[in-house]
Prior knowledge:
Helices cover 42% and strands 2% of the residues. By secondary structure, it is an all-alpha fold. Strands 1-2 form a two-stranded antiparallel sheet. The protein starts with 38 loop residues before the first strand and ends with a helix.
Amino acid sequence: MSSFNPSAPPLPNSSSPSPYSNPNNYSSNYNYPPPAQAYHVSHQSNLTPSTSSPSYGGGSSNFGFNYNNPFPPGTDPEIIRSFQMVDRDNSGFIDDFELQNALSLGYNRFNRSTVRLLIFLFKNPSEKSLIIRPGEFAALWSCLGQWRVIFERFDRDRCGIDLEELRDALYSLGYAVPPSVLQLLISRYDSGTGRKTHLSFDSFIECGMVVKGLTEKFKEKDTRYTGSATITYDDFMSMVLPYLVTYN
């Protein structure tokens, strides 16, 4: 089977910035790109401007999935074929090994940590195992196509995403990530050679999904979208630990 590379149209332009995405909230010597409106990354075929959550980038909680559905109408046959090829036992779901094989059909091979993180974010929250079903697989595949467009747009030198390009890419999605957090994200991929760190698409997906996922969890507590919230210790641990366990 030929390789399948999903794609998505370019992000729409906008001149209406999200208050939480205001670069002036952070260090004035950290140069952000021109203001951009927060976007829903709804894992559908297009990215649409957000009007309901002005303080954050990304989409709604739980990533807007319709759980327990078969492949949605109009799903690209290549996506269905990719799922069927790796679901060798016809169980109707795939695990991390199978998803890793499916993604290798359309992209460079993903690390296991990235695959497990994707399953964690896309699976039905009521599902205890790290598995995804057809509708969730289609949503994941569509999302990766959209994020691939972002990666290629900001990987200007085609050497991978560096820290400044990561900042710009996340900001284009509505996430004005503080410099200290960006440095923490990219430090995971530091080779230790003293050379500038560049992220592959796989690593870019890891960073972006951690930012998006934790932002969505925080939004649940910050119901007024002020950029601050009071949470209990239990809530904090429940919010962060799944990412630490899955991400490593």
